[in-house]
Structure formats: C-alpha cells, structure tokens
Write a structure and sequence with these properties.
Layout (H helix, E strand, L loop, with lengths): L5 E9 L2 E4 L2 E5 L5 H11 L12 H14 L13 E7 L4 H11 L5 H4 L6 H10 L5 E5 L5 H13 L5 E10 L2 E10 L7 E2 L2 H9 L4
Parallel strand pairs: 4-5, 4-6
Antiparallel strand pairs: 1-2, 1-7, 1-8, 2-3, 6-7
Helix pairs in contact: 1-2, 2-5, 6-7
C-alpha cells in the first residue's frame, strides 16, 4: 500500500519577491537579482559565512531551503540520513560555467571552478543543515512535475528517506527561479497531498 505524503511547506523566489507558503514575505523590485538575494540573506539572518563565496545558483538554493525549513521543519523528528534532497533545473551550472570560462585565458578561478557542477547547491544545503540522505540533481528542458513526483515517491516507498526537499532551482544571467517543496508523511495545518497536480499548481502559481 502506498504511503501518503504531503507538501507541508513551500518557498518560491522569483522576480525579486519571496513567497513562503503562497504568501509574499520579502520584496524589493529596485535591486538586481544578485543584490536581491544578498539583501534577502541579510534580512532573514541566515548566518552561513560561506554564503558570499558561493555562486548564484548555490546562493539561491541555500536561501530558498532556509526559508522553506524555518518554522516549518522539526529537525529533531529525523535522522540526518532520512532527509533527501532532489532538485532540478534547465541550465545546470551554465551561469557559473560561462564566468569560469572567461577566467581561463588569464588565470582560472578555483573559487568559480568549485561551482561548475549543479549539484554543489545540494552540498551547501546539506552542509548547513547536516543532512546526509539521498540526493540528486536533474537537468530538464523545463520543469517536470511528473518525474519529481515519481522519483521522490519511489524514495519514500523504498524507505530510503523519511522527508524530502525537492523542486527547481535555476539561475541564468538575471533570470532566476526557485520553487522548493518540503515533503513529509505527516500532515500539517495547510498541507496538500504530494502529487503531480499539486506540484504543478505550486510551480505555476500566478502570485500577481
């Protein structure tokens, strides 16, 4: 019998607005994409000294995951190995790859080279939160809720994980979008069933 799973929290960051569980909690349309993420990091007092050394994709993912989990996730309920992270986007680490390539003709930047893999964002989230569970990063032409639902459900059904952070983290130039979901077996006051339909509704939600 399939295990019931629920989306217990969401975080969306796009167009210089941050939404937690569908509600706008931080906005500044006057800033560039990079300045906005830095301002949000300060505003939410995240406290991860390595933040300013990270590439934009990792900054975005770390920021979104921290907001997703804050006041929504009881870490004491899970062992580090029970927390999974499954992310995706359409450009992998291309934004950083291009920046790194520009340094090759003079002096290749080790600081940029470290981030020329998209799954590094998962590593940063895991390090900050001491998560040690199953993780994966997939690259698709566009967001694939069907795949995410199937893959995460399989991890739960095979008892590889007990909770999961999943979704989309994309950064290319000045265009970016993070949509993260927290999936658990226990319902919360505003949770919805974890399935393809609800994942797509959250990802495509027009916040006006």
């Amino acid at each position: 019998m399939s295990i019931a799973k629920y989306i217990t929290a969401t975080c969306i960051i796009t167009d210089q607005i941050i939404y937690k569980n569908g509600r706008s909690i931080f906005e500044n349309k006057n800033l560039s994409a990079t300045d906005f993420v830095d301002a949000a990091y300060k505003h939410f007092d995240i406290g991860y000294p390595k933040f300013y050394k990270m590439d934009n994709l990792s900054k975005l993912g770390l920021l979104a995951s921290d907001i997703l989990l804050k006041e929504s996730f009881n870490k004491a309920n899970y062992q580090p190995e029970e927390v999974g992270i499954v992310l995706s986007n359409s450009n992998a680490s291309l934004d950083t790859d291009i920046k790194y390539y520009k340094t090759v003709s003079s002096f290749p930047s080790p600081a940029l080279f470290v981030y020329t893999l998209p799954n590094i964002v998962i590593g940063e989230i895991s390090i900050k939160n001491t998560f040690k569970g199953e993780n994966a990063f997939f690259v698709f032409k566009e967001f694939d809720a069907t795949f995410i639902a199937s893959y995460v459900n399989d991890l739960f059904e095979r008892k590889i994980i007990e909770t999961c952070i999943c979704g989309w983290v994309e950064w290319m130039g000045e265009k970016y979008k993070a949509v993260l979901l927290l999936v658990e077996k226990q319902e919360s006051g505003q949770s919805v069933i974890f399935n393809e339909g609800n994942i797509n509704k959250i990802y495509s939600l027009d916040h006006g």
